[in-house]
Design goal:
Helix 1 packs across helix 2. The longest helix is centred in the middle third of the chain and has 18 residues. Strand 4 and strand 5 form a beta hairpin. The chain has two domains: about 45 residues; about 90 residues, no CATH class. It is α+β, with helices and mostly antiparallel strands. The protein has five helices and six strands, in the order E-E-E-E-E-H-H-E-H-H-H. The protein binds zinc ion. Zinc ion (ZN) binds next to loops. Zinc ion binds next to loops.
């Protein structure tokens, strides 16, 4: 989105939260060129979806957040940046294809894990341990059995 002050074509999102009726998203943006900060209200149609957290809170689907979780899971594995972006893209299309407005964070986690499983078992296991509440080896074993069953 263009900067409201200097017209610089790229601004960074500092914070996103759903509006009161969940049909708008309020975004704080920052322009790295002029250091201006402003707030935009964007229609949900222009965005992907809301994620329902485990505690019931709603959060705007955040591509960067997914990307950084995937990056962490792939640290030191021979997987290029392009590939990581492709995975996030595939998750986004999956959300769009499902035509869901709201998505449980667990479902999202399962999709990310499935995509990582395709590229590297270590990335899959790391992601599952950090993001899918795997407490011990027994949980991990159960998870693997369920999925590879
Ligand atoms: Zn600016």
């Amino acid at each position: 989105m263009k900067c409201q002050f200097c017209g610089h074509p790229k601004t960074r999102v500092l914070d996103s939260r759903p509006g009161k009726k969940n049909n708008h998203i309020r975004r704080r943006r920052h322009c790295q060129q002029c250091d201006g900060r402003f707030t935009t209200f964007e229609r949900l149609e222009d965005n992907l979806a809301l994620v329902i957290k485990r505690d019931g809170r709603l959060e705007v689907f955040d591509r960067e957040k997914i990307l950084s979780a995937i990056k962490q899971s792939c640290t030191k594995l021979p997987i290029g940046e392009d590939h990581l972006n492709k995975i996030v893209g595939s998750i986004e299309s999956r959300i769009q294809e499902s035509r869901r407005r709201k998505l449980r964070s667990q479902v999202l986690g399962d999709w990310v894990a499935a995509a990582l499983y395709e590229i590297h078992p270590a990335a899959y296991i790391r992601y599952s341990i950090v993001h899918r509440q795997i407490q011990d080896l027994r949980d991990l074993q159960r998870l693997l059995e369920e999925e590879l069953g």
